């Protein structure tokens, strides 16, 4: 059942023993909104357990309460409410077993949410952390740093440090309020920006393959299976070349096995989802992807040729 | 004479023909606060000329009014007020000649400002654009996009997109208000992030020299004279390695001639100004620099050795 801000605040107010969870493959908003809501409810004297059924990103370990998040538990905890954050119920891993039969409240800024929880509060917002901030602000609570810091982190990560198009006036106003509560933006950014040496080394190897095409309108990087299997995460790699002046389309292809490649395509307006669809993939106008069942060199040639032709046609 | 916000607003209100200028080697805040204030004053029916005696950064060309900024002028313009932004009067190049004998108003967020203008409004703020926003907000003016976009750009650039320690609650609140006036944060960030291909190629060459020392506590990159003379700007290069997990000190040395090198040193808390001073340089605890009169290989060895010893002592 879809509910309002007021009803969401009321449900949280009434509950005494609360489970909080968020999606697997957790990001700053999943962890930040969980910790922020958790710390707030605990400050109100409620009993709270936070479960996320996955490894947590190491660069979030500066957040107060990070060590309290458990993957799963043998303990019997008779929660009277389970809150699912930043996803619908389908992506919480084995935590679904823990909350069987419990009343569920789902708070999420993804409008694709399937709405299957008992109570669902969904809004198109920059981050789930922004919604949690609004709930806390709504009940006029004082916000301790243990709440403010995770919420700010959720806002900052889901908006790419206030750079993405989801950044709205309210997002900045919420950030301003959280800074008033003691958040130091530089400490958050320094903590979040940390990358393992292996990732930076991977970036270097990837950048060495930089290939320009279509008179500088296409930039590509290419990671073979050997290289990509060594790198923890290639998130953000494509942004290193997307920012080159004159580049309309940036592409990264990585081998996910010796004969299968995964391509990510980004544009500044040119519809790349059409190209991705041609190869059985999909996405949006400015961000798309596809899987290519061939070795890297072949995938590179095929995709670049296809992009060059598409750009030619669209001059 | 130091004046208040109220007096500053009053001076601007009274003036009819106004010159605006900012520092040479202009950045987003110099250009953004100039254009923002200029557009605001023009919207009030005043005559305005903006001069900056230097090349403007190309990635700011999306700003409305960018083409109106002149380096100098043969035209005789009888201004009754000259406004110097984001610097004291010592760093405005040949514009000083244009404003001889005119009443000067200096608005700057650098507290190192020498205070030599007739009227000086200085505050420790995130950006001069933030001060201009406050002035406009003080007189309760409606803010058109032509004013809001440059001011937002000034805020965003001087705070490293709201990541630096100068980012305060008021900064975010100002950003929120400017978004309300129509600024699209993603459009600003996309425009600002653009880099020439030559700069990205320079980054790649620099990253290839990545050297770790002191068990991963030091990361360094090294650009010989040949390479560094080909690169438009090495700004931000050191940040590529400063973010490596476990790195306390990041260093970049570049040859500025075959036998002279310039070193930049950054830390996450370890006092690097001491090291820089040892070599005749200086700076702050977390950011320092020095010039080394020797070839790159020698400079690299000497500085790394010195940093390793210093870190050893400070374990």
Q: Termini of chain A, distance in Å? A: 49 Å
* Shape label of chain A: elongated
Low-confidence sequence ranges of chain A: none
- CATH domain topology of the largest domain in chain A: inorganic pyrophosphatase (n-terminal core)
Instruction: Please give the domain count of chain A.
Output: 2
Tally of alpha and pi helices of chain A: 12
Largest interface, Cβ cutoff 8 Å: A-B, 47 and 47 residues
Multimeric state of these chains?
Answer: homodimer
Structural class of chain A: alpha/beta
Nearest-integer average pLDDT of chain A: 95
Helix percentage range of chain A: 25-40%
Folded structure, characterized:
The structure is a homodimer of 315-residue chains. Chain A contains 12 helices and 11 strands. The first copy, chain A, has 315 residues and is α/β, with parallel strands linked by helices. Helix content of chain A is 38%, strand content 19%. The N and C termini of chain A lie far apart (49 Å). In chain A, the strands form 2 sheets. In chain A, strands 6-7-8-9-11-10 form a 6-stranded mixed β-sheet. Chain A has a 5-stranded parallel β-sheet with strand order 2-1-3-4-5. The first copy, chain A, folds into 2 domains: 5-193, inorganic pyrophosphatase (n-terminal core) (Alpha-Beta Complex), CATH 3.90.1640.10; 197-313, Roll (Diaminopimelate Epimerase, Chain A, domain 1), CATH 3.10.310.30. Chains A and B meet through helix 6, helix 7 and helix 8 of A and helix 6, helix 7 and helix 8 of B.
